[in-house]
Structures are given as C-alpha cells and as structure tokens.
Amino acid sequence: MSTFTNPIIPGFYPDPSCIRVGDVFYMANSSFQFFPGIPIHKSKDLINWELIGNAINRPSQISLNQATTKINNASRREVFTGGIYAPTIRYHNGVFYNVCTNLTGTANMPSNTDFHSSNFIITAIDLSDPNSYSELIYFDFHGIDLSLFFDKNGKVYVQGSWIYEYDQNPATVIRQAEIDVATGQLLTGARDIWSGATGKVPEGPHVYYKDGWYYLLIAEGGTQARHKITMARSRSIWGPFESDPANLVLTAEGSSGVVHCWCVMLARREYGDSYPLGKETFLTSVEWVDGEFPVFKDVKIKQRTKRQVARKTDTKGPVGVHLKWPATLYLRTPLLENYRQDGDEIVLTATDAGFGSPDGTMTFVGRRQTSLGSAASVTTILSSATSENVSYGLALYKDVFRYAAIQYKVHDSTLAVVVQEAGQPLITMSSHPVQDAVSIRLSITSSVEAYRCGAQICFASAPTTDIALGEVPCSAMSSDDFTGTVYAIFASGDGNTMTFRDFEIESK
C-alpha cells in the first residue's frame, strides 16, 4: 500500500476540475471575488502541482466588481460570495476549454435574493501563456456549475445546475443542451436529465463515457455538511439516467471530477470549529468494475491506496509576493495602475475604498493562506506616506464580513488591530502610539487556534521594540462559506502612495 497526504492543493482552491492530456494533468478551480480568476495547475503525478496561470488574467475579460457577499443564514453561519464559480476544464482537438459562471449581486443584498448568473467559455492553446486565453464567449443558461462533454459523434453538450427560484423545492435540476462552443449558441433547448438521487439541490454535473455507458456524476445535498457525490448512467446522452444503487458514492463534501482511476473533490480540514482555509482540493482513488458503477474510496487526510504514488515535494518555507506571479491575488477587478514593484519593494496607491466596501475594488494584494501553521510579514516604510488621510498595513481577509487588519494610521501615528466578524460590529482590538518610528515590521502568525498579530517597531534613535497586538480566534474566520483566507497588504485613503518591503508568507 502507498500513502499520500490530502489536500493535494492546499489553501483556497475549491471546486476542482481535472483532465489528462498526454502524460500531464491539468486542474482548474473556483476563485470567486478574487482576480486573477480560474487558477490553472499542472502535474505529472497528481501529487505535486505547479500553478501555471489563470484563465481570467486581464481586467478586460470580465468585471468582478459585483462579486458581492451576503449572509445567507446567520443562525447557520452561512456566508455566500459571488464571482467565479465552479469552472470545468476540457480538451478537444488541440484546444483547452474552460466553461464557468460569474455570479453578480448588489451591495447589501438581502439573504433571500439570488445572485445573477452569467455563463461563458474561455479557450486557450497554451495554458501557461496568459495571452493564449480568449475573451469570454457567453451563452444563455439559467444556472451554475457548467460542464462540457465532447461526444464521439462530434456533438458537444453543456450540462449545468438549472436554478428555479430561491427557497423553492426543488431548487435546482440537472439540465443539458447541445452547444456550439465556438459561438456559445445553444443548438437545442435545455432539457432536464436528472434530479439526483435525493432531489436535494443537484449541482456540479460531469458526464463521462465508458464501455457504452454515459456516466453522470453530480453533487447534491447542499454545500456543507450534507454535501455528497452521487452517480447515474444511461445508454443515451439524453437519458433516462438510472441511479447507482450504492448512492451516495462519497459524502460530506462534493463537487468532483474523475480522471481515469482517480477522483478530485473539494473538502475542508476541520479542527473543531476552526476551518478558515475553506475548501481545498483532495484526491481519492476510483475502482472501475466491468459493466458496473465505479467505487470511490473514502477520503482521508492520510490516504492509503493500492496504486503507486509519487512522493510529495517539500514546499514549506518563506515565499515572497510578486505582482506578476500567478498566485498573487487582488480583490475583485483591480486598478493595476495602483500597484508597482521594484525588487523587494511593492508600492501601493491608496483609494477611498476599504475592507467594508461591499463591491468594487480596493488597493489590496496578497496570497492564499495554505496552512494553519503559517505566518505573513511585511515591513512598512513610514516616510513613504506624504498625506495624513491614509491607513495601510497587513491583513487577513476572507470577505467583507470577515477580516482582521493591522493598520497604521498616519494622522495620529497609531498602530491598531481591527476585526470584523460576520454579524458583529467592527471592533478595534488594540491601539498603540508609535511616534518617531521609521519603519514597522508587521506580522500575523497562525496556529490551529488563533491568529497572533504583532509588530517590530524600528526607531531612528531608540532600540527596536517588539509588541504583541492581540489574537483573533480561527473560528472567527470559519463558517459555512465558499472562500478561504488570504494574507494581503493594503492601502486606503486619498491617493497617497505607500512602500512595503519584503512581503513574505511562510508555511511551517
């Protein structure tokens, strides 16, 4: 027996879709309100992955400024965010296809209001070349979780979770239409093909063809603890689909994709009520039996398999942040003229928007948190600020309702930690005067229990001082949601520029 460790792609990389082209695997994931969107990884062994680009890498392709967030159910701690949802990656005749959804909302939208869905296709020849990705090809489908199936007869079909209305029963159904992928035109009407094994919010459909059968794999049961993967099959692409007698084939988390004898799916690592990293990409094995439905092995952190697997390459240690790297994130659609890099320095131009802005963008740049044993740190050069109406610093961010920020306010030379929890007022956890400081090294260090905020104050004519700024429990960043935590530097104010040096994130 061999053993590998889940998740295979740690951090906020939900809704995985995976294909194999030759001897290389490619993976696409959701990105929600962050830019660039639809991260693309590649691997030769399914264990070691390299982020090679993003399908949405130009602000001209799409606006994410209406990727708003709503508290869907306060008592169940449900927080839903719009933006880029559940891409599916496919390859056909030398062309890569990503089919996906952009969900848009309004500022302060009520919980009983649905997001608006816009569905599109992006093509590329070379996934590692940002210029290879096309502009968006839109098509009409009232739903989410789109997938493409290229049939042996040359026809192409799109499947998706068709949405009725909020709180209806059933809320969704799996529908399918024939599509022209070059134009986005639907060549047939969308028709129901399966309501799932339980009829509870069927979504995330993918079709696979094997030994004369069309296998339909979906997720259902909601997006959290009742989430599960189910399967059906038919001799016809249009059905009727017969349910797998063994349903449910996987439980707890869903949204999956099958590649030969492996299955990738989203899941989250829970430590009691702490799971701020959100949904990550996990892997398990699949056994195909001739003439029967496939059997999925239960998912574990330490996953055992009869197949030989590669050894995981150690990726721990400090990692810098560079504006041109594909792992670097901005909030919604950025104003790229507000960001400049010179070696190990990043210069940000502040805008009036802040963390509480429900839509649009703010000056914000960072990377996903990939481990609860991690740390982010950056040095702020205080002399670079020439206006008093500005604040800047280091933050831990999930969405407009959940963030913690160490911010330096120029007008009174104070260092403070502000914390926003869902459904709670914004609080200032600590405040320290730092007059006469030349620079400040800010840090956020995480463990399973808490995020610890600190600072090292460098004075021109006094000893360097280390101060503890307080702790934020990981549970404050954990709920039934779609996104994960991001470490970021930020600037908010009247257009002044601020300089940051040596922005590093380390997984321990």
Automatic annotation (TrEMBL):
<dbReference type="InterPro" id="IPR023296">
    <property type="entry name" value="Glyco_hydro_beta-prop_sf"/>
</dbReference>
<dbReference type="Pfam" id="PF17851">
    <property type="entry name" value="GH43_C2"/>
</dbReference>
<dbReference type="GO" id="GO:0005975">
    <property type="term" value="P:carbohydrate metabolic process"/>
</dbReference>
<feature type="active site" description="Proton donor">
    <location>
        <position position="203"/>
    </location>
</feature>
<dbReference type="GO" id="GO:0004553">
    <property type="term" value="F:hydrolase activity, hydrolyzing O-glycosyl compounds"/>
</dbReference>
<dbReference type="InterPro" id="IPR006710">
    <property type="entry name" value="Glyco_hydro_43"/>
</dbReference>
<protein>
    <submittedName>
        <fullName>Glycosyl hydrolase</fullName>
    </submittedName>
</protein>
<feature type="site" description="Important for catalytic activity, responsible for pKa modulation of the active site Glu and correct orientation of both the proton donor and substrate">
    <location>
        <position position="145"/>
    </location>
</feature>
<dbReference type="Pfam" id="PF04616">
    <property type="entry name" value="Glyco_hydro_43"/>
</dbReference>
<dbReference type="InterPro" id="IPR013320">
    <property type="entry name" value="ConA-like_dom_sf"/>
</dbReference>
<feature type="domain" description="Beta-xylosidase C-terminal Concanavalin A-like">
    <location>
        <begin position="331"/>
        <end position="503"/>
    </location>
</feature>
<keyword id="KW-0378">Hydrolase</keyword>
<feature type="active site" description="Proton acceptor">
    <location>
        <position position="15"/>
    </location>
</feature>
<comment type="similarity">
    <text>Belongs to the glycosyl hydrolase 43 family.</text>
</comment>
<dbReference type="InterPro" id="IPR041542">
    <property type="entry name" value="GH43_C2"/>
</dbReference>
<keyword id="KW-0326">Glycosidase</keyword>
<dbReference type="InterPro" id="IPR051795">
    <property type="entry name" value="Glycosyl_Hydrlase_43"/>
</dbReference>
<keyword id="KW-0732">Signal</keyword>
